[in-house]
Amino acid sequence: MYTTLHNHLQNVWQKSYRLHRALWKSFAIFFYACACIGAGLMANSCVREPELHLPGAPTPDMQIPMVDLDLETYWDYVLDYGIHYDWRTEWVYGWDSADRGIFETDSIGYTRPEKFEIRRYYTHQEPFGRHTNVDPIQIVGNTLHGKKWNWGYWDVLVWSSVEADVVSLDIDDRTTLDSVTATTNPSMRSSRFQAPSFNRAYWQPEQLFSAYERGIEINQDLKGFDYDSLRNVWVKQLEMILEPVTYIYLTQVILHNNRNKVINVDGDADISGMARYTNVNTGIAGNQAIDVTFKTNLKHGVVLPDWCRDYIDVKVPNEVVDISGGRLLTFGIPGQNGNRIKNRSEVRDNFKHFIDINMHFNNGMDSTFIFDVTEKVRSRWKGGVITIELDMDTIPVPQRSGGSAFDAVVKDYEEVELPEFDM
């Protein structure tokens, strides 16, 4: 079963990789500057202003490739002894048609946006100047046609539009022209841990990608432009990188020796100490910590494959376990830009991170299990798999229903200790 599942996951990501491989590596914007066309004009060092293109000539285009990410490439963590992290050798919960419905996404990873928001800021002759005006544009597809670029300096911000029936992500591009902020909204669930300013857990944001380039020079002598003889235009190419500013975490709580002791889990769980908002320009997450609520599901009778032994404590060959799996998006660790961190030592995190999941037992009682995953989050600062293991032989069946009066606390998920019960 797991060989088939593993091969299916590999096939899904190989197809995604072939379709979108170049998209995460380079985000290119091309400015086609139709100025001083013709040998005679060039010989006389012709200058046209203020428009960048001549009347009747082809208009400037802005090309934006489609965007997607291969998780294996994006989660490029280097572990001890130079070993590269391979999330597929740790993720044993799987991904099937039921999961696609529960987690409301066809893909376990990022999906390709079809629409983009563009903000052009003209700073005149001052590079890196303040933004006093903005040209807001939305495009479907990957090409912007017919926009005028005046001589001088420009800043360009691009982010992926959110396409969903119910959107939890708010984009604020009006409070100030110098930056755009993305935030998420509160749910009705109570906040439990590491969210000192908020009493409600927040919805997870939708996936969001952004790219920002400042001081783009459109000069009259066409420095930095190349002549395209086929179209009879001058071309300026700008290389940018469109990066995710929301990070995917995959959670799995593996129940060894469960033997139908836990029969189900609540459909919602929470992770604490994550950022409430992010700066779309810089990719730096805000300093306010919140709890983020996400979907969970319990799978029974999962066979642990041999290829997961480096990450998971397989008790016996072909061990059968139950797994509570989850998938969530967050803005990441407060105050950090995960895309700029190269190793664990660079992570600066002032908050603890807990996952709480309510489990239902076979006697009709329930208990909220609270797991400290702080080190796991810090070592997966831009997303990844968070694995928790429980030996259910060490956990008694509760005799009264849980809530805040009955919590099972696992302090260290890597060294699973006997949980503390308030009986």
Number of DSSP strand runs: 24
Radius of gyration from CA coordinates: 25 Å
Largest sheet: 11 strands, mixed
End-to-end Cα distance, whole Å, is: 39 Å
β-strand amount = 35-45%
Global morphology: elongated
Quaternary form: single chain
Total DSSP helices? 5
Specify the structural class.
Answer: mainly beta
Mean pLDDT: 79
Unreliable runs, pLDDT <50, ≥5 residues? 12-60, 403-408, 410-423
Helix percentage range:
10-25%
Taken in chain order, the helices and strands follow as HEHEHHEEEEEEEEEEEEEEEEEEEEHEE
What can you see in these coordinates?
The chain is mainly beta and 423 residues long. It has a domain at 247-410. It is 11% helix and 37% strand. Strands 9, 10, 15, 16, 17, 19, 20, 21, 22, 23 and 24 form an eleven-stranded mixed β-sheet that branches. The longest helix has 24 residues, at 2-25. It starts with a helix and ends in a 13-residue tail after the last strand.
